[in-house]
Amino acid sequence: MIEWVCLGRESRPVPTPVPTPLVWAGAFGGALVLVALVNTLVGTGRPAPALAVLSVLAAVLGLCARFSAAPGIAVVCWLFLNGFAIPPAGTLTWAHTRDTFWLACLLTAALVGTVLARVLHARAAYRRIGKGVAVETPDPVDGVRDI
Q1: DSSP designation for 137
Q2: How far apart are CA 110 and CA 67, in angstroms?
Q3: In degrees, to the nearest 5, what angle opens at C-alpha 37 toward C-alphas 33 and 41?
């Protein structure tokens, strides 16, 4: 038998995602700092470390964002990757295969972070809701008599 339990208004089983403009602002600031750090440590001629670091940033930002924020996260990170991680710094260029691959990597990272967050939140909500429901299982030994 299923017993319905009211969850109430004060507690939500799944947390509300961060507003999209705030996530994009975090992508802007985080990408700026990370690209500057990678350029200082590694140099501007090697975009692979910058792509890896920005992909991690996109995945982390995806953990707290809505699905609709993922394309914006990818584009903002790509703008900093393309504009400042490859020479000439400050100039946006478009190399079809390279930039398509970079955008795909960044979008995939943001979507993976978002999907991972949704799965983890759903599992946690299931555990919280599941603890309040008691299930009675019949004992098969009680109904059997020895003759």
Answers
A1: -
A2: 9
A3: 175
Q: Give the C-alpha separation, 39 to 33, whole Å.
A: 10
- How far is 41 from 50, CA to CA, in rounded Å? 11
Rounded Cα gap, residues 37 and 43, in angstroms? 9
- Angstrom CA distances, 33 to 38, 77, 80, 82, 143, stand at 9, 11, 10, 15, 70
Contact 78, 113 (CB under 8 A): no
Contact 55, 103 (CB under 8 A): no
- Would you state the structure tokens that stand for residue 108, as one six-digit string? 């995939």
CA distances (Å), origin 39, targets 4, 82, 95, 114: 56, 13, 21, 28
Q: What is the pLDDT of residue 13?
A: 67
Buried b / exposed e over 83-105, threshold 16 CB at 10 Å, is bbbbeeeeeeeeeeeeeeebbeb
Q: What is the mean pLDDT of the chain?
A: 85
pTM: 0.78
The answer to whether residues 104 and 128 touch, using CB atoms and an 8 Å cutoff, is: no
Among 41-45, 53-57, 122-126, 143-147, the minimum mean pLDDT is found in 143-147
